[in-house]
Amino acid sequence: MSADADTALSIDEFTQILRESAGEDDGVDLTGDVADVPFTELGYDSLALLEVAGRITRDYGVVLPDEDLDGVDTPRAFVELVNSTLATAG
User: 85, 37, 86, 46: which is closest to 66 by C-alpha?
Assistant: First the structure.
């Protein structure tokens, strides 16, 4: 999927990218409301998030520096970071 610079990323799109980039733990259901569930509880570590950031860079044309990912610990926080970066890039 490719997106314009002014296209916002949704939680659903993010969880799909998360699944495709980093897999899905057998004990975790990403179809529910996971927006505020910490990545550690979802079974994802910082390496998985770097994979996702790379995929978002390719799909959305937005660069997420590693230091910007520090403190991003939930899907909602990650999506908000992407969307604020898209807004300033556009």
Answer: 46
State residue 30's pLDDT score: 82
Residue 70, SS3? coil
Indicate the domain borders of the chain. Answer: 11-83
Q: How confident is the model at residue 35 (pLDDT cuts 50, 70, 90)?
A: very high
What is the token pair recorded at 49? 């998030």
**Phi, psi dihedrals of residue 63, rounded to the nearest 5°:** -95, 130
For the record, the structure tokens of 25 come out as 């733990």
Report the alpha-carbon distance of residue 42 to residue 27 in Å, rounded.
8
Q: Does the 11-83 domain belong in CATH 1.10.287.110? A: no
Looking at residues 28-33, what average pLDDT do you find? 81
Q: Greater confidence, 9 or 1?
A: 9
AA letter at 19 = R
Closest CA to 17 of 2, 4, 7, 28: 2
